[in-house]
Amino acid sequence: MSDWKADELTAIEGADELRIAPLRRNGTLREPTTIWVVRDGDDLYVRSFKGAGSHWYRGTRARHQGHIEAGGVGRDVRFVDETDPGVNARIDDAYRGKYQHYGAQYVDPMLAPPARAATLRLEPR
């Protein structure tokens, strides 16, 4: 169940980019990284363009918590691995729909197996 407020979902979904800052083991935030974000129902998702090797994604593994900012909304979040094939198929469609204007050279890697394996659901905390 999502704890996002409707206006937060709308604002974040409408933002082209999201700034994500994973929480380090010592409790401090890493430097924010700008990435893409998509919505599926009442949930928000991000993927690592470079898969599990990305610096920001590796940072999410330390505490599975962090902070995001997009569309004028800032929230502390939990990072939850998303592995459901059906959900990932919908997320693929969301990336295609939202970011198609950037072209296949940017969108296709977000749909490739390495990025799909690095899909995270953002849960407010």
TrEMBL record:
Give the superkingdom in one word.
Bacteria
Q: What is this protein called?
A: DUF2255 domain-containing protein
Q: Which organism is it from?
A: Phytohabitans houttuyneae
